[in-house]
Amino acid sequence: MADLKNARMMLGLARDDLTALEEMKGSARISDRTFGFHAQQAVEKALKAWLAVLGVDYPKTHDLDELLAPLDEQRQVVPEDFQRLAYLTDYAVLLRYTISEQLDEALNRPALVRDVSGLIEHVERILQA
Asked: How many domains does the chain have?
């Protein structure tokens, strides 16, 4: 059964992280590690909200691929733009707590904000339906 209360809460938390991203995107003082962490958190919470709307118990994980898999099992259409965000998983733990790990390339912050915002809006539409 759908858990709409949890879905709304998770979407609110995802929006909080999106707001942080919007505020940080133009600041050179904010590292890509920190920016990527908040992007990963927003995506994680949005995916968990989506699963809650479907009544699926989501795994307690930061791994975005593990959160996308049940959506596929539920035959949900997940646009490629949202699937691509799975690369942010490394920002949740690996790049957050290990200075020795290097980033492959700089984040495209405006594009990332756009994609994260798109995912959150997509899940909000599902919740409202």
From this structure: 1
What are the two backbone dihedrals, phi and then psi, of residue 38, each rounded to the nearest 5 degrees? -70, -35
Q: Which residues contact 34 (CB under 8 A, 6 or more apart)?
A: 24
Instruction: Give whole-number Cα distances, 82 to 10, 28, 57, 85, 104, in Å.
Output: 17, 26, 20, 5, 20
96 or 47, which is more confident? 47
Q: Which residue has the higher pLDDT, 104 or 1?
A: 1
Question: What is the model's pLDDT at position 129?
Answer: 87
Domain CATH number, residue 71: 1.20.120.330
Q: Report the C-alpha gap between 72 and 57 in whole angstroms.
A: 14
N-to-C CA span, the chain: 15
Q: Taking the model in full, what pTM does it have?
A: 0.92
Domain with 99 in it: 4-128
